[in-house]
Design a protein that fits this description.
Elements lengths: L4 H7 L13 H8 L4 E6 L6 H14 L4 E5 H5 L6 H8 L1 H7 L5 H20 L3 E5 L5 H11 L4 E7 L2 H7 L4 H6 L21 E4 L5 H14 L17
Parallel strand pairs: 1-3, 1-4, 2-3, 4-5
Length: 238
């Protein structure tokens, strides 16, 4: 008798249990000298998310704090690879089932996966800086709900569409306008702005260095990092 493997999998009991670590999150944070958290940079392609996240990462590192950037493109190279990237090694059926395109449903799964990874990094006491368009408000809110308010900082990297399109660092807007790319946010799909982000930074109105300083100050003012972290330079405290 043929068995519907998808339905069978859904009906199986879930026997998954969280295992406590020998080293607690509190111990890791005490060793690091700061809290673990996720700083979620969201905005249109070309708004400056990756530039800003990497500047903040550099300043935190220079101050002796533990941080890491999860960049949208980098994650799409492995964990959330597309069907076309998976097919040569794993075959067509596997690629279609587990690969992620840029369609709305796949974007939701992309953000769910990265939210779960960012949560693990937070448990390790890291300041995780994520740079993803993450266009749908419900997806970002789901990550916030999963991590908790104390661990999630939403930074809206705001820039007008015309500014982002004029920058077009990867040529994506040009390709989208030419019909070479489908499902592109801002052209074919909407971007849903955050309603109540912890921080709004406008990249068309200030330099990346100045905006990185705003993010650092916010983290210090909310107690997520020390006001004067060990090893901090004058530049990293601006």
């Amino acid at each position: 008798m043929a068995v519907n493997r998808e339905n069978a999998a859904m009906s199986e009991p879930v026997e998954v249990h969280w295992h406590e670590h020998a080293v607690s999150r509190e111990e890791r944070e005490a060793s690091a000298g700061h809290r673990g958290c996720v700083v979620w940079f969201t905005g249109l392609s070309g708004s400056g998310k990756s530039t800003l996240a990497n500047l903040v990462d550099h300043r935190l590192h220079e101050a002796g704090l533990r941080s890491f950037v999860l960049d949208g493109d980098n994650v799409r190279m492995g964990l959330n690879a597309s069907p076309a990237m998976l097919e040569p090694r794993y075959g067509d059926a596997f690629a279609k089932r587990f690969g992620l395109s840029f369609a709305a449903e796949d974007r939701t799964e992309n953000i769910r996966r990265i939210g779960a990874v960012a949560g693990l990094f937070t448990q390790a006491g890291l300041i995780t800086l994520t740079a993803f368009v993450s266009p749908f408000r419900a997806d970002r809110d789901a990550v916030r709900a999963a991590l908790g308010e104390k661990d999630f900082v939403e930074v809206f990297v705001k820039a007008p569409l015309e500014v982002c399109e004029s920058r077009d660092p990867k040529g994506l807007y040009r390709k989208a306008r030419a019909g070479e790319i489908r499902d592109f946010t801002g052209i074919h799909q909407p971007y849903e702005e955050p309603l109540a982000p912890e921080l709004i930074v406008e990249t068309a109105a200030a330099t990346p260095d100045a905006l990185a300083g705003e993010v650092i100050r916010y983290l210090a003012n909310t107690g997520r990092i020390p006001a004067s972290p060990p090893g901090a330079t004058a530049d990293s405290r601006q």
